[in-house]
Amino acid sequence: MKNNVRGTPFRSARVLIAIALASMMLAGGSTALADGDQADASAASAGGHKKSVFVSGNSTASGCGIPGSDWAISLTGDLEGCWSSYVQGFKCKELQDYDLYFEEGREVFVGKLRGKQGRFRTTYTLEAAFAKPYCQSFDPTLQVAGGCKHKVIGGSGVFANAKGVITFLDVVTGVTGDPVTGEFQAGTGGNNFLYYGRIGFDQDDTSPRPSRTASSATALPSAGYSSATSSPPRTGGC
């Protein structure tokens, strides 16, 4: 015989209780995360060590770059300032349905962390997909997807002894396609560049520093990859 004592009303009550408890836990967790990041930021700004802060924001192409840099972006959000990049190597591979571009280099950020001034250095790697024939034309408007990771390797001011990883995600506009066939067409390229990551502050900073001299980009050797004698045109971003 079916037992209806713990039927639909009982199950509904349990679901409502579970949802309420989950909401309370999520709210408490979000508050704790926000409070923790604020406390970490205050400690970093005061010169504290063994702390880390989560950062996020937006960026757009800019002419703010350090003289000799290959391109630059202007950041808003938790980080405010100018991000200058020096391309040190790249390669482009013509794949079946698109062209794959890879790049590496170094960078310098000069600006503020939540109002406190400083600067830091990074090394980075970039991967992006482009509609054909990007490897032949290096037309930045052919970009359809992309992103990059930046390893923070030390700095000064509020970023003294900073280490961490910051990820950029390209917002590419105008790309269209057919979800059934998978066919796609490029739009107008990267529009803005969202970022997020975590920066730690360690009292010991023994990591080697990259050369400060500007360097021209070289094509990374790799069978099947197209190459060029100088870095491809960039409109900023990742």
Q: Would you mind describing this structure in some detail?
A:
It is a single chain. With 238 residues, the protein is an alpha+beta fold. It has 2 domains: 1-46; 51-226. It is built from 2 helices and 12 strands. Strands 1-2-3-4-5-6-7-10 form an 8-stranded antiparallel barrel. A two-stranded antiparallel ribbon has the order 8-9. Strand 2 and strand 3 (79-94) form a beta hairpin. The N and C termini lie far apart (65 Å). 31% of the residues are buried.
Task: Please give a quick description of this structure.
This protein is of the alpha+beta class.
Core attributes:
2 domains; 238 residues; 2 helices; alpha+beta; 18% helix; disordered N terminus; two-stranded antiparallel ribbon; elongated
Spatial strand order of the main sheet: 1-2-3-4-5-6-7-10
Output the radius of gyration: 23 Å
Number of helices: 2
Q: What structural class do helix, strand and pairing data support? A: alpha+beta
Secondary structure layout plus pairing:
Layout: H1 8-45, E1 51-61, E2 71-77, E3 79-94, E4 99-113, E5 116-130, H2 134-137, E6 143-157, E7 162-173, E8 176-177, E9 184-185, E10 189-201, E11 218-219, E12 225-226
Parallel strand pairs: 3-11
Antiparallel strand pairs: 1-2, 1-10, 2-3, 3-4, 3-12, 4-5, 5-6, 6-7, 7-10, 8-9
